[in-house]
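Please, structure for the following, as tokens.
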Amino acid sequence: MTGLQMKWIVGDDWDGKLLRAFLKEEKRLSKRALADIKFAGGSIFVNGEFATVRKILQMNDEVEIIFPPEVRSDSIVPEKIGLDIVFEDTHLLVVNKPAGMPTIPSRDHLSGTLANAVLHYYDDHGISSTFHAVNRLDKDTSGIVVIAKHRFAHDLMAKAQQAGGMHREYIAITHGVITSKKGTITGPIGRKTDSIIEREVRSDGQTAITHYKVLSQTAEETVVRVKLETGRTHQIRVHFSYLGHPLIGDDLYGGERTKIGRQALHSFYCSFLHPLTLEEINLEAPIPSDMKNWIV
């Protein structure tokens, strides 16, 4: 079994330059990716002939990379679970994850996760890859999860996300009436001293910035549109609890589950520059039924 194959034509600005530089600077292959190609079963060809990264390129050369086959973890067993696919091409799979589904297996949830479902989907469609989640959502948070179909796309998307090139927005429903129609919550987040799960705003935590805009209100709840500037664990849930307005249904951070059985949080919008086609991708996932009653 062979891995991903990519082909490029060398432009005149790379005439006379090293293949290594072309791959690292022009095509953004990481040092690790090049090492994997060399030592883990990949290949490099120029004009159909085997080449090393020391080859000098000429304009109009055809460079072909065959990445090593991907090895799956035995801990993720493919399971036939339906996927709500928002976008798909050769390199990316974007799904609308339902509430109640973990993104990856854990000690408490070995099956029924998004990873289990995606690997079964890959097997059904002849995709020889493992699970590469670009972003993750809490088990009870619904919405958009971006998955790379191979290591190269995952590496490029991860770098883009770290550089702020992945724009994600959420809809959340909080307890109480938030008086400011828009605002920014700034508070460093760290692990709570007596818990391995809970986070809290604390002086020695990591920088965390959350922007919000009020969409609608009742006498008891507020619907907000949220944009993250940073991506800390439980950031939206912690920040609104810190503000005194925990999400409804979020009993871990002070919310009540009388009206909804999970935290009312949905990742509804995502945009990014496709790492390989360089197209602007804009995606939306509809508001789930258990949150629709508050959306006007």
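The chain has six helices and 16 strands. The domain at 169-266 is CATH 3.30.2350.10 (Pseudouridine synthase).
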